[in-house]
Specification:
mainly alpha, elongated, 75% helix
């Protein structure tokens, strides 16, 4: 059988790409453990990918602008509060995405 490259396995381990074998691996998971467990794995992958999408801008903006908790009115407080707002909005997007079974299975 064809073994995926090490970088593809690393991306999959971080849940940044689909698993080696793609849907065939998901089908095997479903056959072996059942559809409910396969769905939980797909749901977890959706949320992990969502966290990666959240972490990237937070790290970049946090490092560029030196975001840190500050008293309201200080220059750093605007960036800090904007990052908190971004986190709340992104959690709403992820929660909405997780409500659609089709979307969860596509992300798996």
């Amino acid at each position: 059988t064809h073994r995926p490259s090490w970088w593809h396995e690393a991306l999959w381990a971080l849940r940044l790409s689909s698993p080696p074998g793609g849907t065939s691996m998901e089908d095997q998971l479903s056959k072996h453990y059942g559809a409910a467990v396969a769905y939980v794995f797909a749901w977890a992958n959706l949320y992990i990918r969502g966290l990666w999408c959240l972490i990237a801008p937070l790290l970049i903006l946090g490092c560029l602008f030196g975001a840190e908790p500050a008293t309201l009115g200080e220059p750093h407080s605007l960036v800090w509060n904007a990052l908190q707002l971004w986190t709340l909005l992104w959690s709403l997007v992820l929660a909405q995405a997780g409500r659609s079974r089709r979307r969860v299975l596509e992300a798996g």
